[in-house]
Amino acid sequence: MRKGVAALETRKSGRGHAFSSPIFPKKMYAFVIPALAMFLVFWIFPIFQMFFYSVTNFDGVNYHYSFVGLKNFMQLLKEGTMTNAISNTLIYTLLVVVGTNVIGLALAMALNMKLVGKSFFRTSAFLPTLFSSIVVGFIWSYVYMPDSGMIASIMNFFGLDGSNFNILGDMHSALYGIAIVDIWKSFGTTMIIYLAGLQTVDESLIEAGRIDGCSEWQLICRIKLPLISSTVTINVILSVIAGLKAFDYAFIMTNGGPGKATNTLMFTIYKIAFTDQMMGKASALSVVSFFVIIIITIGMLVFMNKREVEL
Amino acid sequence: MVKSNKFLKRFPLYIILILLCLIIISPLLIVLSSSLRMPGNMKSPLVLFSQFTLESYIQAFNKMNFPVEFLNSLMTTGGSVLVIVLISTMAAYPISRIKNRLSRGLYYFFIAGLIIPSQMVIVPVAQTFGALHIPNTRFTPMIMFITCSLPFSTFLYAGFMKSVPVEIEESAYLDGAGLWTRFHKIVFPLLKPATVSAVITQGLWIWNDYFFPMVFISKAEQYSLPVGMIQFLGDRENPAQWNVLFASCVLCALPLIVLFAVLQKQFINGIAAGAVKG
Predict the structure, then answer these.
(1) Given CB atoms, is A301 within the 8 Å cutoff of chain B?
(2) pLDDT classification of A94: cutoffs 50, 70, 90
(3) Nearest C-alpha of chain A: how many angstroms from B49?
(4) Phi, psi values for residue A29, rounded to 5°
(5) Which tens digits make up the pLDDT trace of A226-249?
(6) Are residues A92 and A33 in the same domain?
């Protein structure tokens, strides 16, 4: 009891959370053990193993694999697999980041006003986020289906020739096709986060702007956006992370095709590992992805932090 | 007069919103309408709700073995979320209470896990499972669900724990409460908004995830709902199967839609809180 009071006094005298605080002793770190153990065994250790496999010719079954140096990397580079997968992933990420954030923000701005049927609009925008991506993949396979799919039927209805419509069958449009699906599924979450951000904006600032004669557009650009810049940062970071992980719709809808048009990094890793049974090569591409992701994340964090301060 | 003026001014906005909503939900409407037709009837899909029969649902229900898959999904999602809440609150407790370099290090160490995609490490993860002789049961994917969700949940709880005043714990300490008592009697109940957020955001992706079950499960009776859907991928080539496919899509999504209808506010607040507080 007395010890406790003494400890409280040292805390209050400015030494803060002293190392040997009896209220928060170091043995508290025991609480971290279950989470840390799982994290190390099933997440961190495999990452190290991935680096090791990347310089071997391991096939997943035979454990008598040998060291092959940088052969896997050279092969990925020579086949063009690496550059193709990286550029597909980056284009896809850019499309998803811009798409979800622009639509999400615009919709959140609109729904932040006093509108009739606000909750109906919000619910229908949020609905797609509830679906599993496998279900979304099925639904959009039908929407995009040539001849008798939804878009083709609508085109036929308006007298256009729907049989020529085949967005997923065209090398130049397939990647955009699956990016649209991803945007459709995920902008609802982005919108919800923007709405929460907009609700923290002080109404009196908007009112003051209005009295000073700002137009709606100026109110948005000069007052609302700067005030929710931290929400913008969060949303952009979240969508970049999600975009770099792109796998689902390449796997479900296009199988990486036509040709290599929708081979994203994650899908290519999966295909090399489980279809070609070349675990060494798949790990080499994982190592490449690891660095791509790290570089982009760090670059983005530095850029965003700077920007947020400026605004 | 003023009111109708305002409405007129906003009229274009309403038109845009209604159009946008139509674009968003039109695929869902067609799926729902087609799933209520007889199997094989995909003629003029744009004529909505022209037929009403549950025949496609009955076929889908039997084909996907709905009760078993539903139960598997329920058990793995529930179990994973329970463990996640328990061990990530525990991990966040010392990290946010003891302020030193070790805590900061652990905090960033966990967060760094957020950016690693699961497909990237799946090869060595599968090898690790083999080396540890972990059998492939319906519960095996749970290990990865829990692991993958640790970065976000720990980050979320550590953020929320800052708003739990230290003074409450100090007075409990003076009353002789031990660490564990303080943790589960005082701190944990005060973290309820974070727990709602963790349960909803993590439950949502775990329920919908097919990747880990696909890698770790091979027996049909162990499938969860999303991984059961993968078995139908080939049916897309057969136009006669679309009605049944759509019915199984609806069945697969139905549990979450019902839950969302009941807990709409918690869903929206939970997702927003997860991003804003963190």
Answers:
(1) no
(2) very high
(3) 15
(4) -60, -15
(5) 888 888 888 998 899 899 999 999
(6) no
**Residue A148 covered by a domain:** yes
Across the range B91-95, mean pLDDT stands at: 90
> What local confidence, expressed as pLDDT, does residue A6 receive?
42
| Burial bucket for residue A179 (CB in 10 Å: 0-12, 13-18, 19+) | buried
The angle subtended at Cα A130 by Cα A128 and Cα A135, nearest 5°, is 75
CA angle B117, A292, A46 (to 5 degrees): 45
pLDDT band at A2 (very low <50, low <70, confident <90, very high): very low
| Contact call for A150 and B27, based on CB within 8 A | yes
Q: Is B82 on the interface with A (CB under 8 A)?
A: no
Question: Given a cut of 80, is residue A298 above it in pLDDT?
Answer: yes
The pLDDT, as a whole number, for residue B73 is 92
CB-CB neighbors (< 8 A) of A43 in chain B: 113, 116, 121, 147-148, 150
The least confident of A191-195, B51-55, B201-205, B269-273 is B51-55
Greater model confidence, A166 or A286: A286
**Residue-averaged pLDDT of chain A:** 83
Amino acid, res. A199: Q
Q: Which of residues 147-186 of A touch B (CB under 8 A)?
A: 148, 150, 153-154, 157, 184
Q: Are residues A155 and A11 in the same domain?
A: no
Do A118 and A217 lie in one domain? The reply is yes
- Do A31 and B91 make contact, defined as CB atoms within 8 angstroms? yes
Measured between CB atoms, does B206 come within 8 Å of chain A?
no
Closest Cβ–Cβ partner in A21, A24, A49 for B124: A49
CATH for B65-231, among 1.10.3720.10, 3.90.1170.50, 3.40.309.10, 3.20.20.370?
1.10.3720.10
Domain span including residue A241: 68-310
Q: What pLDDT score does A98 carry? A: 96
Which B positions 58-77 lie with beta carbon below 8 A of chain A?
Answer: none
The per-residue pLDDT for range A238-283, each reduced to its tens digit, is 899 899 999 999 998 888 878 888 899 999 999 998 888 888 888 9
Which of A21, A22, A39 comes nearest B147 by C-beta? A39
Distance from CA of A17 to the nearest CA of B (A): 6
Nearest CA in chain B to A232: B276
Band the pLDDT of B206: cuts 50, 70, 90: very high
Q: Is B245 on the interface with A (CB under 8 A)?
A: yes
Q: In the predicted model, is pLDDT for residue A182 greater than 90? A: yes
Question: pLDDT tens for residues B189-204?
Answer: 888 888 998 999 899 9
**Record: contact A43-B147, CB cut-off 8 A:** yes
On whether both A84 and A45 belong to a single domain, the answer is: no
Q: Check A128 against B24: CB less than 8 A apart.
A: yes
